[in-house]
């Protein structure tokens, strides 16, 4: 317990004995006996007693603030005063609750506004060209960050608990902001940095733990199979250390009937031709010709599909 000096500070020169009793007996001896009753419980008792007596001045304000400091939560204080209202009087409780609200919300910072408009999103998509550089603090950067906040929440909803195929399709549609084919399938968890620049075709399948960084645009053809833990990264940082907060975006385009194996990484600017296969673990940094198999780091053509 912090040594109390309020009595001395305010009344020491006028009523020194009262000040001494206040500081050294009440707060010095009684409040310090936490082996008998904790500071938290003493705060609850004191706030309730003051409210019941109709003492709704700075004394109550001090003890509500002290209760907060001693671990009484806002929900607990609201419940304590609500319960006591039926015994101590409704007007007293009203005043005490108003005071408690001011004390418990005084330190709260207003929630940041991460909302965006349809016009904001359209502005971003209209200006997202291959090789676009997103610079810090620009409108493009602000829109990207705001959409990303929303997408993170939607991905958490998709990934939380069991969902039927229809429920997963509905959630994925919310993430990308457009309808998906009735035969589209996704196995959670699924992660996306942006969401609104993902474009899927018919009868596509995305396995578990895939990461789509789609700011630059991810375009899937029809009948695409994507193995688990695949990363499609359309965004990259500027190499100059002084500008490394800026990002460069390039699209990824995946043709019809492509099969991408597990743990593959595809970087921005790559097009994978129709019918191609990307072997598990490959890192794809260049375009993949149609009907070929690529493998390795970096990925290279190892055979053609007849």
Textual characterization of the structure:
This protein has 2 domains: 5-106, AhpD-like, CATH 1.20.1290; 118-304, Hexapeptide repeat proteins (UDP N-Acetylglucosamine Acyltransferase, domain 1, 3 Solenoid), CATH 2.160.10. 29% of the residues are buried. A 7-stranded mixed beta sheet has the order 2-5-8-13-16-18-19. Strands 3-6-9-14-17 form a 5-stranded parallel beta sheet. The chain has 306 residues and is of the alpha/beta class. 40% of the residues lie in helices and 17% in strands. It starts with 5 loop residues before the first helix and ends with a strand. The longest helix is centred in the middle third of the chain and has 21 residues, at 139-159. Helix 3 (39-52) packs antiparallel against helix 4 (58-69), helix 5 (74-88) packs antiparallel against helix 6 (90-105) and helix 7 crosses helix 8. It is built from 9 helices and 19 strands. It has helices at residues 6-11, 16-30, 39-52, 58-69, 74-88, 90-105, 118-127, 139-159, 165-176; strands spanning 132-134, 185-186, 190-192, 198-199, 205-206, 210-213, 218-220, 225-226, 231-233, 235-237, 247-249, 252-254, 259-260, 265-267, 271-272, 277-278, 283-284, 292-295, 300-304.
């Amino acid at each position: 317990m912090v040594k109390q000096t309020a009595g001395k500070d305010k009344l020491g020169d006028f009523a020194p004995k009262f000040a001494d009793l206040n500081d050294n007996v009440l707060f010095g001896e009684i409040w310090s006996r936490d082996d008998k009753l904790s500071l938290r419980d003493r705060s609850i008792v004191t706030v309730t007693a003051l409210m019941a007596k109709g003492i709704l001045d700075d004394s109550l304000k001090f003890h509500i603030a002290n209760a907060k400091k001693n671990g009484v939560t806002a929900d607990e204080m609201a419940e304590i005063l609500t319960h006591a209202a039926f015994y101590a009087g409704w007007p007293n409780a009203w005043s005490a609750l108003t005071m408690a609200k001011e004390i418990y919300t005084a330190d709260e910072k207003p929630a940041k506004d991460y909302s965006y408009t349809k016009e904001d999103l359209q502005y971003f998509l209209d200006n997202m060209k291959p090789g676009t550089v997103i610079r810090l603090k620009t409108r493009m950067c602000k829109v990207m960050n705001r959409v990303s906040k929303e997408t993170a929440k939607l991905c958490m909803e998709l990934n939380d608990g069991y969902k039927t195929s229809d429920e997963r399709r509905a959630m994925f549609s919310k993430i990308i902001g457009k309808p998906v084919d009735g035969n589209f399938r996704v196995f959670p968890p699924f992660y996306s940095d942006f969401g609104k620049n993902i474009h899927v075709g018919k009868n596509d399948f995305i396995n578990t733990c895939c990461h789509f960084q789609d700011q630059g645009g991810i375009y899937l053809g029809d009948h695409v199979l994507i193995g688990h833990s695949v990363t499609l990264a359309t965004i990259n940082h500027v190499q100059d250390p002084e500008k490394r907060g800026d990002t460069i975006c390039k699209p990824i385009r995946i043709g019809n009937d492509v099969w991408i194996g597990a743990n593959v990484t595809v970087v921005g600017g790559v097009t994978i031709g129709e019918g191609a296969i990307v072997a598990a673990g490959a890192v794809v940094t260049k375009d993949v010709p149609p009907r070929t198999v690529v493998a390795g780091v970096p990925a290279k053509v190892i055979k053609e599909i007849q």
